[in-house]
Amino acid sequence: MEPIALLIAATMNAGTVLAIASLGLLINERAGIVNLGAEGMMLVAAIAGFATGVHTGNDWLAFAAGAGAGATMALVFGVLVIWLNTNQYASGLALSLFGVGFSAFVGIRYTQERLGDRPRFEIPGLADLPFVGPAFFKHHPMVYIAIVLTVVLAWFLYRSRAGLVLRAVGESPESAHALGYPVRRIRLLAVLAGGALCGLAGAYISVIYTPLWVEGMIAGKGWIALALTTFATWRPARVLLGAYLFGGVTMLQFHLQGQGVQIASQLLTMLPYLATIVVLVLISRNPTFIRVNMPASLGKPFYPGS
User: pTM for the complete prediction?
Assistant: First the structure.
């Protein structure tokens, strides 16, 4: 049973990265904004968090730096697409490409750096339980914070007035504007929140999940997080479950290799991306289901007074 417990623990750890980033992108898309720059934001946040961790030795400051870097890039994106009405898809791709190059340039001097000894976390009493202890109760606090974020976001979107306004902006910005709501400011706040969460996910990778800095270390997780929002039909609880599913597929390759399964390593490496494609194809077979759940103004620009 120990290998299974370790696989569950690794799945939760890997799924945390995808969950936090996907929740951020979900906030964006609930407001009607598509941000394809998640990969670049996470990379810049990863180097920002890692550099802060190297110089301060404080993981929480590193997380704050990563969230700040993600929010800063999201601010630039938000100004471009919300106020200057640039194309959301082209601007997002440009942001992603910029993040890849900028993080590689800034991170050159940190490729040989190492963080201090990593602290070990466990919940007293529960961590010593057989099977469930190592599987569920020996994680970094950020793993549990991701679960709390999911619950809070679900409550915010479906139980709070502010969440209702955010969803209204994503469904019909013209109607929200007619009722007197500042649509552009609401969308910008959503973009900033989404960027901060993507940044937090990037910093978690370089500070806790790895922990080190390597050029291109996000390795497509930003794109998987983007696909995960569609897979989850823009619902927070499904985002968390989907993140653990994709995290499990990612970690399964290492588990199988550790068990001596004779499968080409290239095939195992492509499993997460293959799973992403398969899931999107299956969902796309029912366009009505996507259309019912998708924010009606997703990806569409808003021109006040038009």
Answer: 0.91
